[in-house]
Each structure stands twice: as structure tokens, then as C-alpha cells.
Amino acid sequence: MTAPASAHPILTLSNVVAGYGKMTILNGTSFSVPRGSITTVIGPNGAGKSTVFKTIFGLLNAREGSVTFDGRDVTNRPPRDLLEAGICYVPQGRNIFPELSVRHNIELGTVAAGRGLTDLPARIEAALDRFPILRKKADQQASTLSGGQQKQLEIVRGLLLDPKLILIDEPSIGLSPMMVAETFQILLEQRDKGVSVLMIEQNARSALAMSDYGLVLELGQTRMFDDAPAILADPRVGQLFLGGSLAEKSEAA
Amino acid sequence: MDQFLQLIVAGLATGAIYALAAIGFTLVWQTSQTINFAQGEFVMLPAILVLTAAHVGLPMWLAFIVGSAAFILLFGFGFKRFLVEPMQRHGVLPLAIATMALSVLIKEAAKNGFSAEAQHFPSLVPDGSVSFLGAAVSARDIAIFVVAVAAILGLQAFITRTRTGRTMQATAQNPTVARILGVPVERMILLTFLINAALALIASYLISPVYLAKFSNGETIGLAAFIAAIVGGFNQIRGALAGGFLIGLIDNLAAAYVSSAYRAAVPLVVLVVVILVKPEGLLGRKEERTV
Predict the structure, then answer these.
(1) What is the distance in angstroms between the Cα of A89 and the nearest Cα belonging to chain B?
(2) Residue A100: which of B166, B176, B181 has the nearest Cβ?
(3) In-domain check, residue B101
(4) How far is Cα A9 from Cα A12, in angstroms, rounded to an integer?
């Protein structure tokens, strides 16, 4: 692969095979996520983008291959272990507890830390301070939040335990352009603090524009990995999203 | 007027029992999609177990402890581990049918293993009546109401005011996300089964002194609790509470003012009306499912 040199990647997948039942989605997926950067995964529908996240986070069993996080083998570990290791996962869609208050929704982000976390109230207050709207609605049911506010809640909840890596799947779906910009801003802030971000985005153009690296996934395999501007400028990427197959093109080239 | 007041108090007492059973019913539905058709038998059985323990010679206080422990172990932990878990992967309906089989099994076991006759069960409250708003009402009814409501308030406080309780709620509302946040989902589900068993146990000790301990007691209670849960809104604790009181009151008032022969039919009429008019239940929320 023509990956840019990254001496100590935060996350490495090597030859991961996974799927649902008899269906194999990931056919030996391999890639490395550079530390302290934002990497955006793009690819056509069914390429296995969300499946990669589920496999990394232990929600789906890898039949073959390995996942290495921060130098440790974490293949097929349950979510709780991965949270403790420093990964957080924000899945696609709505992921809140609608009938719990906003504050209690956020509080649940610290479950994995157990009783050991002594500064829990302070962390929750800090999270609420970061987003005035969450502070304002702290004691209301989370179902009263708008879609964008719910996404903010999910991200804030994921950040409570100071993760080293954020896996975030399609954060922009259903959000207004302003909310998308705000959400991206949070991710950039985290990146600047040294946190690594691996993001799936349908909205490839604007996501790559704010990313450091781009990764193109197709048919469960890594087709391209490069600096985000290079991916963005590559004519094959446009074709890929217009229905062409990257494999054929690169073979022809 | 006196009679009316007595009926109201009796209705609230019966309703509190139904509410205990209905809340447990709702809890296990929420966390594990288990429709427990053996819920009535769960309320019948603890009293029988206590009497069985007393029958083999244990002093009454010890019989209570042994019977309670055996019940929680078998029908809190065991029920979840050996019936719900293996059946769950086959779907909601096979699991529901398995609980029906369990209800028949418990009933027949109680009948053959203990007694086919109704047995006296010791009451913790003396018989008699107290004056309430000028009417003489049963002290036992008041005691049943107070104990059941205290248990429900205690449960409510646990669920809303403790972190474990809120984690349990989160598991019920969205198990997938709970797992992603590292919630020990299986342990939380087990907790709801233990709570369900404890509520059934309380209901059993409250109602058995009144109706006597008999293997067939579960039939009425199970049906009433099921109707109460649906009328109140299947996915709400406060719905099950309201539904329980409503059915208890209607049950008692119908027996007195309509016809005691048709008393069992009236809650069913209420059920049909609620399903037609407000299918999500009086306090329920509409559930959306993506297909």
C-alpha cells in the first residue's frame, strides 16, 4: 500500500475477515490509522465501512486476521475492554436513551470506568459547559433534543473517558449544514489535542476537506490510502462514487 | 356510602397486588422481550413454598426465609438462565409459549406436590377493621395497600435515583447502545428478573392470607396483571401501576354493582375498549420499529 509513513499507528487491521452469517463483508481488510490525525473512510454502499467499525469494536467477530490498538492485540475483545483501552464508538443514527435526562445520558458514558472514576461529576459538568444547549436541557428527557443536539450528546458522552481513538460513523446524516460544521469542529479540536479520529462519511468532499488522511474501501478491501487532499484530487475517487469500480481502473492503468 | 368506601379500599388493595405483578411483567418485557405468562403462578408459588418448608418441620420464620430464597433462586435466576436464555434466540413467540408451559408445570407441581386444597397462610397483619372516613374498612386491605405501594415507591427510587437503576433503564430503552457504552447488559437483565421475582414474592405474601394459598390462585392474578400491564401501557412502570389500580377497582366495583358472576368479564371489556381506543395503553408510548 502507498500509505504515508506512520511509525506508530494508533490502530492497525491486518487481513481481517468478517461478515454476517454466511455473508462475508470484509475480505482481508488491512490498513493503519496514523496517530493524532483524522482519517476519513469513504467507499460505495456495501463496501463494509460500518462493518469495519463493528469488527474493531468487538460487536462482530473477526473470523481471521487481527486488530492492533496502541501496540496491543485487541482482536475480538468485547466493547468494555476496548473502552478501557481507549477507543470510543459513535455509531450511525440515533444512539441515545430517549427517556433518560440529558445529564443521565451523558453519565452513562462513564459506565466502563466503573466506580474508580472519582471526578465523574466534574467531567459531566465540563461536558455540559462545552455545549450550552445540553446544559440548558440537562434535566429534560433526551428525546426533546434535536437531531444535531443528540449527535453532540453522543460525542460528548464518548469523550468523557478521554479516548485515544474515536470511531465515528456518518456523523453528518440528517444534520443541518451548520450542525455538521459544529460537529466537525469538535473532531478537529480533539485531533489538535492528540486524539486520533477514524470517521466514515457519505459526505466525502467536505469530510476529506477537514481530514488529514483518506481511505477508500471497496468490496471489503482497502483500495487507496493517502493524504486527504490527494484522495480528494484523485479522478478515480469521483468515478468510484459514480458507480465505476476502482479495481478495474487500477488494473487497467 | 360505607359500602362504596369499603369497595374502594378493597379495590385499591387488590389493585396494588395486580400492580406489583404487572410492574414485574413490564420490567422483564422491557429488558428481554419476555412475555411471562407464568406471572400469576409466580405470585401463587412463594406462599406454597413457605408452607411446604413449614410442613417439613421448619419454624415459620425460617420457612419464610427458605421459601423466599428458593423462589428467588429458581424463578429469578433460574427462570432467566434456563428458560429465557435458551428460548430467546428463537423469538418472542416461542419464548412466550415456553412460559405458558412453565405456568402449567408450576400449577400442576403445586397441586400434586403440595395440596389440591386451599391452605391457611399466616397474616402479618391482624384481622379486623379500622375506621376510615367514618366507614369501617378492613385493616388488612389497608396494610396490603401500604406495603405494596411502599415496595413500588422503593423500586421507583432505585430505578431513577441510583446509577445502577438508571443503567438498568438504559438497558431497557436501548440495549445496543448500552452495550457500546460498556454496560454489562446481561447482568442488568438478570437484575430485572430478580426484581420481578421479589415483587411476585411480596404480592404472594400479601394476598395469600386473604385468598388462602391454592395452586389455582395464579389464574386470576396472572390474567389481571396481564390486562393491567396492557391497559396501562406495556412499556411503562407507571402505566402498569395505574393499570393495576384501575383493574383492581373495576374488579371490586363490578362484583358489587354489576354482577359477581360477570366480575371476571369486566376487566376484559376494559381491555378491549382500551385496545380499540388507545392501543398503546393509557400511559404508554407508541413503539416504532424499523423493518
Answers:
(1) 7
(2) B166
(3) yes
(4) 7
